[in-house]
Amino acid sequence: MSTSLPNRAGIVLGAAALVLLSAGFALALFWVPSDADQGFSQRIFYVHVPVALTAYASFVWGAWKALRLLWTREPSYDLESYTAIHIGVIFGVLTLVTGSIWARISWGVWWSWGERQLVLFLVLFLFYSAYFMLRYSTDPGPRRAGMSAVYALFGVVLIPVSFLAIRLAENFIHPVVFNSHGPQMAGSMFFVFCVCFAGMLALAGALYANELTGKRLDTRLRELREALA
Amino acid sequence: MTTAEKYVLAAFLVVFAVVLAYVVIYAFKLSRLERELSDLAERAARTRRSAEREREPVAR
């Protein structure tokens, strides 16, 4: 197990998240021009899309750590993979909630079962939520680590499917902003989006680093308790 | 405030509320870890004291 605790990374990323998200949200609410089609409500884009992309990034990070675990059999990767998926699920909840709010104002409904993008994201979210049930139904050890890693790797296959679903769909109401011609928005809008996305990634990184530190501390305390017993 | 503004504000507040809830949960976790650490430190000190007493030479 690694002996270094990434608490310094947590502090640096947390500070970066605070600065970037404060600036990004202020710019999104007061500076960026309103969308010609959706008006003021389009500003939910600056929170919903970065949150969704951060959820995807967390799941990919979890799958990468799972792959490293299967490749090297180094047990510390199990905790790292689990923590990344934990953070991904938190961002998944935020994606669903902010997406529902945007759907209500734009489409007049909280949810649309006919939308492949929405349903696939829900499937992805439920798949990763079930990860915790699988993990805690097995005793800790190499078997649980291996099973969790394989499950995390299967889940990552759903990400490109979820991402591409909207582009493959024929009938859709979910907007496509990023296509093969690049971002379909004004330069100022894209700049604010990048600030919000960087802030959201920094926030996820800070949560990941702090959560990992806490979980490692928990493990070490348990080992110490057993040694002193 | 228009309806659109209310919904946009709600979306931003949801993110803020979830992060805040996470920080509160994490604060509880940290205080639990701190309690366990103090308990272990106390137990280690007790063990050390009893080991030192055992090592002391017996008076003749």
Unreliable parts of chain B: none
Which chains share the greatest interface?
A-B, 30 and 24 residues
Number of spatially distinct domains of chain A: 1
| Alpha-beta content class of chain B | mainly alpha
Estimate the global geometry of chain B from the Cα principal axes.
rod-shaped
Q: Helical proportion of chain A?
A: over 70%
Please compute the radius of gyration of chain B using only Cα atoms. Answer: 26 Å
Task: Note down, in words, how this protein is organized.
The complex is a heterodimer of chains A (229) and B (60). Chain A has 229 residues and is mainly α. Chain A has one domain (44-172, 182-219). Chain A has six helices and two strands, in the order αααααββα. Chain A has helices spanning 7-30, 45-72, 76-107, 116-136, 142-168, 187-228, and strands at 178-179, 182-183. A two-stranded antiparallel sheet of chain A has the order 1-2. In chain A, strand 1 and strand 2 form a beta hairpin. Chain A is globular and about 65 Å long. In chain A, 38% of the residues are buried. With 60 residues, chain B is mainly α. Chain B contains one helix and no strands. Chain B has one helix spanning 3-55. Chain B is rod-shaped, with a radius of gyration of 26 Å. The model of chain B has no long low-confidence stretch (mean pLDDT 86). The chains are: A mainly alpha (229), B mainly alpha (60). The interface between A and B is medium-sized, with 30 and 24 residues.
